[in-house]
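[job 0412] stage=complex_fold ligand=adenosine-5'-diphosphate status=START
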Amino acid sequence: MYWEKELEQLDRRALERLQLQRLQATLAQAAKSRYYAGIADIGRVLRAPFTTIEAISELPFTGKEDLRASFPWGFLAVEQRDVVRLHSSSGTTGNPTVVYHNRHDLASWANLMARSMFAAGVRDTDVFQNICGYGLFTGGLGFQYGAEKLGCLSIPAGAGNSLRQIKLMRDFGTSVVHAIPSYLGRLAEVFAEEGLDPRRATNLHTLIIGAEPHTEEQRRRIEAMFAVKAYNSFGLSEMNGPGVAFECTEQNGLHVWEDAYVVEIIDPVSLCPVADGEIGELVMTTLDRQAMPVVRYRTRDLTRMLPGPCACGRTHRRIDRISGRSDDMFIIKGCNVFPMQIEGVLLKLPEVGDDYRIELTTIDDQDEMVIAVEVKAEWFRGDLAFLDRLQRQITRLIRDELLVRPLIKLVEPGSLPKSEGKAVRVYDRRSK
Ligand code: ADP
Ligand code: ZN
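[job 0412] stage=complex_fold status=DONE, emitting structure tokens
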């Protein structure tokens, strides 16, 4: 059992009181760092403390650029000798940043991870195989310590080597796997190459998928591939890593652990809070971190708060799955496009395989969006007239969604190069 029932079902007023109290402590701690010591507003709040949690909106934001500019020690709020581990973000969007933890921080993170996994139905009787990179990437050690705290038999398998993953799953009766969604299509293919049916060849009942944006369509496909339930796990290194927001077994949005984070959704242009339920940028503040408190961090991830209580009984509010990050958005022919909009259209079609690439290029002085779409083997062998119809159908569906006409290239399954780690799906090769 790993359920902090009382804390997870705290009524809103009590939860906000707890947040307020932890926020004051966090600000006092943050003020010990070189970076926050230089921010006058924090000193002001410390002299005249907030009385409501909403007042957090008076504090300045912290951006990725601030973390970079203060690299490596500017955010350190404890003695360096008390730091016991550091992680670094994978640098998807530029230079890496660093996050350091003391013992308290690591214990608190492991606790959040155990609670997250429990909420998704994982129990101490499960065999948990963690198929992702260990090392600086937080998905490895984050899940590892969570699974141990929960009491699972854990297999720190690491990323890649699908044949070995399958052998481990079958040898030890793995019942829960954590992996990034873009890897699972590949894993299912390797099962098939070995003459195994991924729906029957293992004891698997739960997948935990996260670390990269994916659509509901992709989740449903992954569930069908393995005949299991798949739960969405969200996190970012700056807020520890996984264990920030997690789906419970209701599969209806991700509970943000509000005893550990303050969550805000802002309009990325006006920087004001959006109306309840509207999509905006997720902004987060740590409430239980000592070595590196972070105040109002602009995640660049886009989501919205979901209304109403959750049937699981947890009172911590839920966010919708991430629809993209603001820096994923590209503009083509004057239209703003998020890759997830394209994925949403493609994966609804049964003929479409599991991968696609979006290339922005210049043809005859015109910017074009070329989308290479994998077609499933059974359809790819179909007649040319069929493929021609499919190509036209995809072109039309995407044009209707984005108001931009794409050039669609149908390709054989498995022919698109796979990236190590998180999937890279957009390549901008336009001549500027
Ligand atoms: P990097 O920013 O270099 O990728 P991280 O490994 O810290 O470094 O990645 C965190 C980011 O990954 C988040 O800000 C978000 O964009 C993305 N992410 C993590 N989990 C999810 C998820 N479940 N759904 C969508 N995006 C996710
Ligand atoms: Zn719930």
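The chain has a mean pLDDT of 95.
[job 0412] exit 0
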